Amino acid sequence: MALSADSWMKEYNEALKLADDINGMISERSSFPALGADAQRYASAIRRKITILRTRLDSIQSLLLKLPGKLPMYPSSSPS
């Protein structure tokens, strides 16, 4: 299977939707009481989605590194 820019863009768009969902859930969390079973379940759901997002971001990074003719992208390094 040939790797294309479309592969990582698809992953990126899905990650973006997931991140928006997480942001919305965090905003809605303020309407829950600070303590209690419902608040704990809601916080757990947010943590699960964050874990899924982290996995998706790792996948995007892997796909980007496999694109032909592209240099690895590392935020702390600069081209010399």
From TrEMBL:
- Protein name as it appears in the record: Uncharacterized protein
